[in-house]
Amino acid sequence: MERTSAQLNELEITYQYGVSLDSLGLDNSELVRSDFIFVFTFILKISRQTNSNPIFEYLIFYRYQKSQFIRPHLCSRYKYLTLSHLFRVKIQTLITSALIVSSLYLIWLNCARNLERRYASKYAVVTGATGGVGQEIVAEMLKTMHVIAVDRDEQLLTDLVLKHKSSKNLVLPFVFDFTNKLSTFGPKFDSFLRQYNVDKLDVGMCFSNAGIGEFKQFEASSFEAKARFMQVNFSSHLAISDYFCKLFLTRTHAKSALIVTSSLITGTCGRFFALYHTSKTMLSALAASLYSEYASKGIDVLAVHPSSIANTKFMKGEGMKTLDSFASKYISHIGNLWISVTPKQIVAQMLSRVGKLNQTFVGFATVLNAIQGALLGRNLNAFLWSKCTFLDKLFTKNQ
C-alpha cells in the first residue's frame, strides 16, 4: 500500500510539475523514508528545479504529510521553517486578488446600461432642465425616449425645445417654479400629462436636478430668504420624490428610476455654505432612505455627488454674488479649476450607476472629500473649519 501511494505521488508530481524522481536522483523506495533531512532535501530539490516559490514547497510538503510519508512530529519542524514565507506569499496573493476584484468592479460600474429595456420607459422627467447638467441629461435621454423638461423659465424651455426639434424624440416643456406652492405640482403635472395625452405608466425615469447655490454668512440673509432657499434645494426634491414614488409603485410591469443631484459639499461643513451643506446632506439622506425602502419594490434611487461643475451658470447665480469683488471673482472661476467635472461626466456616471448603487461621487475631489468626511466625522470636521477664521476676512464684505 505504501509503495502504491508512493507511485501515485510520483505520477502526480511528474504530471503537474514536470519533475521526475529519476531527474532528482531518487526512486520510489526513498519516498517512504520519514527522516527530516531527506524530506527537506527532497522538497528543496523540487523547488529549485521548478523555480517555485515557498507556497509550492509548503503544498508539496502538506501532500506528503497527508499521505503519511512523514512522521507527524517531524512535520512541525518544516512547517515552522516555511511559515514566514507562506505568510508573505499569502499577503501578496491577497493584494493581487484585491486589485483584480477592484478592477473588475470598476469595469462593471462603468458599463453602460440599457435603460429603455430596464425601465420600459417612454418618457423621462428632468427638473432644472435648462441648466448645464439638466441640458446634458435632456440630450442624453433623447437618444432613447421622450423628455419632459421642467423649469421656471418659459423662454429657456422654448429654446431647449427648438434646440432639439430635429431629434427623433420630443421635448415636452412643463413650466413650474419651485419657489411657488409645492403642493400644486402634482395636480398641475397631472393636467400637463392629460394635455399631451401621456400615459402615467409610460413615465419610468425622473431626474430631480433643480437647485440653486448660495455663498454667504448665515446671518447675512433673512429667514424668508433662507426658507425660500431650502424650498428650492430640498423641499422641491421632496415634492418630486413624493409624486414619483407613488407613481412608480403603480408601474408593476417594470422597474423605475429616481435620480437626484446632490453635491460634494455633503462631506464637509465648511464656512459660508451652511444652508447649501444642510440641504444637500438632507437630500443625500433622503435618497438613501428611499433606496432602502423602495429598492425591493422596483424603484432604483440614486444620489449623485459632483464636485464643482465646469461650463454652467451655477456659480454665477444670484446667491453667489453677495461677496466683495475679489471673492465673487474667485467663486465664479471655481468651475474652471482642474478639480471640476463636466456635465457630460456627471450624466455618464448617473446612467451607468443607476440600479447598481445608491450614492455615487463624481470627480477626484469629491471622492477625497467623502473619505475625509467619513474619517474625521462631524465633530472634528466642524472644529477644524471653526479655526479657519482667516476666511472671514478673505471672503466677507460689508453686508
UniProtKB/TrEMBL annotation:
It comes from the Eukaryota. The chain crosses the membrane at residues 87-108. GO terms for molecular function: oxidoreductase activity. Keywords: Membrane, Oxidoreductase, Transmembrane, Transmembrane helix. InterPro entries: NAD(P)-bd_dom_sf, SDR_fam. The keyword Transmembrane helix applies. Pfam families: adh_short. The keyword Oxidoreductase applies. Belongs to the short-chain dehydrogenases/reductases (SDR) family. This is Putative. It comes from Hexamita inflata.
